[in-house]
Amino acid sequence: MTIRGIQLIEEEAAVELQHINVKLLLKAPERVDLHAVIPVFHSWIQDQSTDELLLDVASYAHVKDGPGVILIGHEADYSLDLTDGRLGLRYNRKAVGDGNNQLRLEQAVSAALKALETLQRDKRLENSIQFDGRNIELFINDRLLAPNAAVTQLAADSEMRIFLNRLVTSEPYSLLYEPDSRRLFGVRVQFEREFTVSELLQNLSVGQPSAH
Amino acid sequence: MKASNSLWKEKLDGQVPEHLAREVDIFETELTLRKQGKLEERLFAETRLRRGAYGQRYDNGQRNDGHKVQKLNFPSGDLTKGPNTLWDAPGMQRIKIPAGGLNAHQLEVMAELAEEYSDGIAHITTRQDFQLHYVHIDDTGALMRRLAAANITTREACGNSVRNVTACPYAGVCTDEAFDVTPYARALAKFLLGHPDAQSFGRKFKPAFSGCAQHACGLTGLHDLGLIAKTRVNATTGREEHGFEMYVGGGLGAVPYQAKLFQEFVPPEELLPLAQAIARVFARHGEKKNRNRARIKFLIQDLGIEKFRELVLAEREILPFDPRWNDYIEEAKAEFQESALKPAVDVPELVLIGNANGSGAEFQQWLKSNIRPQRQPGYVTVTVALPLGDITSNQLRSLSDIVRRFTRETIRTTVEQNFVIRWVSKADLPDLYKALHAIGLGDAGAGALVDITSCPGTDTCKLGISSSRGLAAELRKKVSEKSFVRDEAVQKLHIKISGCFNSCGQHHVADLGFYGVSRKIGGYAVPHFQVVLGGQWENNAASYGLPIVAVPSKNIPKVVERLTERYVADRISGETFKEFVKRTGKAQLKTMLDDLAKPPSGDRSYFSDWGDPREYTLGDLGDGECAGEVVSAVDFGLAAAERELFEAQLAFERRDFERAGRSAYHSMLNGARGLVQAENPHVREDASEIVTEFRKRYYDTQLFFDPFAGGKFAQYLFAAHEKRDQAHTEESSRYLIDEAQLFIDAAHSCNSKLGKLVAV
Question: For chain A, what is the domain count?
Answer without folding.
Answer: 1
